[in-house]
Amino acid sequence: VAFYNATDGDNWIDNSGWLDPEVPISAWTGITEIQGRVRVIEFNNNNLLPVIPDEIGDLTALNVLSIVEPTLDFNRQGSLSPEITTLSNLQTLRLENLFITDGLPDSIGNLNSLLQLQIIGCQLQGELPASITSMTALQTLDLRSNFMVGQLPDSLGDLSNLQFLDLRFNGFDGEIPTSLTNITGLQWALFTQNQL
Q1: Can you list the residues of the chain whose pLDDT is less than 70?
Q2: Alpha-carbon distances of 139 from 92, 107, 124, 133, 189, rounded to whole Å
């Protein structure tokens, strides 16, 4: 319910089942529940306010958090709680076209099970946290179309399972890490529209 309130659930396009005591959580729009635990939160084009509240950390079995809006709404600014980094079972984090001007939490590297990190077109700011290179299960790192800055750490090459890297349309500067050549399964690495 905290997620509903934080994301302005009364104004979602579809909020079926939410706040209705007669409807089981498994029937709420955007929720997949398995064995009594919320495993997936997935919304596409549902007019959510871009706020990931602290209570997200209570969903310890969460595997997927995906919120995608078709266009960025500059009148609806939100935030990304650092509590998201306590979700040790999270495998997919996808946020797209949400007006979140925070940076990635420094503790993002705690997400050891994460396979896909996609935060696209969210106005995300700040530098790439050094801890991100401890996410060795990561297969997709897609942070394109944000306002991220700073140098890319040479330790990016430690992401040994990385297959897709997309950092286009940011403000990164310096050199492209040569350590990326050590990742044998890397299929593409895109850096255009930076100062690299």
Answers
A1: none
A2: 10, 19, 21, 12, 12
Tokens matching residue 174? 């310096």
First to last CA, the chain: 43
Burial class of residue 81, CB neighbours in 10 A (0-12, 13-18, 19+): middle
Q: Report d(CA 31, CA 4) in Å as an integer.
A: 11
Q: Which of 139, 129, 64, 136 is nearest to 95 (CA)?
A: 64
Distance between CA 38 and CA 137 in Å, rounded? 22
Locate 20 and state its tokens. Answer: 């209705």
Measure CA 146 to chain center. 13
Give the pLDDT of residue 160: 97
Between the CA of residue 146 and those of 124, 178, 187, what are the distances in Å? Answer: 5, 23, 22
CA distance 154 to 130: 10
pLDDT of residue 30: 97
Q: Which long-range contacts (CB under 8 A, 24 or more apart) does 105-110 make?
A: 105/80, 105/129, 106/131, 107/82, 107/131, 108/132, 108/135, 109/85, 109/133, 109/134, 109/135, 110/85, 110/86
Can you say how many angstroms the Cα of residue 55 is from the centroid of all Cα atoms in its chain?
Answer: 16
pLDDT by residue (tens digit) across 8-59? 999 999 999 999 999 999 999 999 999 999 999 999 999 999 999 999 999 9
